[in-house]
């Protein structure tokens, strides 16, 4: 297996791994207000998230940026709580809320990228030539995110179509459930923060 294939596979498997379900929750709630017909908008949204986490992933792996790991592990569920609340409180999607969503996805991607970096650093060890591995891992992460988005949009489509559930009701249910899970994660991780 080539280096590209290996790191691509590690990237998508990392984000789709249920042990790291916080990233799955974030991508799911990020597209929670959208329908299958909105797939282009969702793709742009997830790409904004990818751009954000690619920047900090690279900066962190290259040891340009150093941030307390336990703080990042706490901030990741905070991004999920915030996104869930935004879904619950925003009753209509306007151009302003769409721009805000893209900005938040980019900003929250910066936080998530630092979370991914610890995993990637452990794989790279002391290797100094990491550009190709970093690129392949990022492409793998994006592929994994697209798989999550497709799954979330298909599930919402099937539920709305076959149960006659209103789209807003589905958004409220999904966002509220994810909010509850992420809020518990925030509490659990807050006590683990070690300030330096």
TrEMBL record:
Keywords: Membrane, Transmembrane, Transmembrane helix. It holds the Pfam family HupE_UreJ_2. The chain crosses the membrane at residues 20-37, 42-65, 71-90, 102-120, 132-160, 172-193. InterPro entries: Put_HupE_UreJ. This is HupE/UreJ family protein. It comes from Mucilaginibacter celer.
